[in-house]
Amino acid sequence: MKHSLAQGFEPDLQTDASRNRSDAAVRQQFFADTDVTRRRAIRRGLWVAVLIYLLFSLTDILLVPDVSIHTTFARVVVGIAALLALELQVRAGTRADFMDLTCAVALVCGYLGWLLPAMMTSYTTNMSYYMVFGAIFMMGANLFFTFNFALSLVASGVVLCIYFGALNYLHEDIYYRIAFGTFYLACFSFTSYVNWRLNRERARVLLSAVEAKIRQREAEERGEALLRLSNTDPMTGVANRRAVDAQLRLLWSDWTTSKRNFAVFLIDVDFFKKYNDYYGHQEGDRCLVQVARALQLAVSDRDALIGRYGGEEFIALLRFNTRQEVDKVAELLRRAVEDLCLAHERRRDGTSVITVSVGVSFTRPAPEHKLERLIYEADRALYLAKESGRNRIKLFDPDDPLTSDDTENVAALLDIAIQQNLVSLVYQPIRSLANDRVQAAEALMRLRLLDGTLVPPSIFIPIAERIGKITDLGLWAIRTACQQMLQTGKVQVVSVNVSPIQLKRPGFATSVAAILGELGIGGGQLALEITEGLEMDMDSDVLRCISDLRMLGIKIWLDDFGTGFAGLSWLRLIEFDTVKIDKSFLHDGTSLRGKAMLKDIIGLIRNRGPKILVEGVETVEQLHLMQQFKIDHVQGYFVGRPVSAEAFEVSRANGVKGMR
Ligand code: C2E
Ligand code: MG
Ligand code: MG
After folding, report:
1. Of 404, 422, 448, which marks where a domain is finished?
2. pLDDT for 103 beyond 80
3. What's the pTM value of the predicted model, to 2 decimals?
4. Are residues 502 and 388 both part of a single domain?
């Protein structure tokens, strides 16, 4: 379990390396986001700065009118060049840092562009005051733009140096130089200091914002992981029941509103209980994980969901456009598991690998079509797939009597069948060839609909098995057969058919013992027929139940021998009192090959010791053949048709007559 759990969760567990990678990605994304806003701010800042710079042409005209034409020209040239360079960078998507550099260069050029022509003025006194204007450029570098500290320092430092150069050139007066020089230096130091503080603060804010972003991303990832977890089957990693139900509701609402078709595939691992019993639960879990992965891989390129629907049952939900698509996907799913080639030595049906049975239903316009109904239909189809030998696909067919609406009616009817006397038993004589006497009879169940229509056992028995009603019906049949045939002394032995499902139910043997005790009937008068055909799992529960029944003296017969896959292994596992050879072998016995086959089967059973009964004897020739083969008992229309308990006397007389 641990192994599979780890496998299931692996994608959710983030390693440190991957977390660091994702942090770096978040940081990068954050800076990319802030770069955009920074670039926008730089562009706006430079446009404003150039505008103000140009407006200062007016002060040029007032203070240095003789050179104002030159200063204004210089202002226009520098301003336009700076804006041009910036706009080109904007178009080229240049990083904000480079745009800052352009601004810094523009700032220095702007200062030089004004200062150099202004220094040529003859208004030297005015100019000596006007020189203070240079401090604005320094402030611009440190406070107006949001340059990083180094760039601010260099830009404002260059402005300072240019100023000192100009001061040297312009003024001889030492006091003037000291006063203005100190002012400039102070201005440089204060604005640089403020810029440093601002940069630090900005970095802090930026860092917290990145942190917050990372935290937010982590929280989102955790939320997503939690959601994934709550929708994932922890062992196999596919969708769990909850997620499947949600998806089903979604698909159904799409179907009802916009008629988008979807199909439901129920996928059951064949003989999984046997696999678990033999290979152990850990291997069983591992097998389910592999099956889940194979299923997921099979539909990975389609709009489909794979989920775990029960223990060894998976579900696939698929939107489709054509029926062929549904067939194709069903086959893909079946084959994906078969191709895994996971060894399953215990299944004894001629296959030795893990396979799945698939039942499919799909949306179709039909009155009272409901979601529950769709699942029920897939379930029915799955049951039929298993029933017809497993490792196969069955698509729900609304026209199939076993899958039609009648199934639901029959299921509902079975609930009230006993109280409403809708079930009854008929008895078919079994003749012993040793003394030519009918000493036993087989009880066969009959069900009538409320309108009196007879439902054949081939229809209602599988339904009763499926819905679990067979337990009650089976016990009722045993009690009724004992009362009608044994208590009245009509036959010495009555045989009743039982489904392996009944034998698996805990307490079955005890219930039978209670019936026998209550009716005062010896166990030796009752025989139970187990059909080999349908349900093939002969597990330890069944074996234990059979041994309990044998302890009560009850006879165990193997019915329909040769129709299923498990007959031979059952013969080895269980000591049957009688084996009933399926009528198909007798009916094939007309040909030489068929006769040889029948002879071989008889020989095979005889070697193991049980008595042999051949079913389906319909003609005198068949009866003679049975006598020739020294068969112990025969049963069939020639000996007598199944009749009610009241009519049974006549039937026996007929049977005896038929012998003569
Ligand atoms: P089965 O136990 O093998 O019963 C024999 C079936 O063969 C019966 O069909 C019977 O009517 C039919 N049959 C008998 N003689 C001949 C013959 O000479 N020729 C032909 N062609 N058929 C013959 P039925 O009554 O339709 O039962 C079908 C199956 O339903 C039974 O096969 C048995 O597996 C199942 N079944 C019947 N009653 C019960 C029951 O009470 N409990 C359970 N679990 N299964 C039952
Ligand atoms: Mg039978
Ligand atoms: Mg039979």
Report:
1. 404
2. yes
3. 0.53
4. no
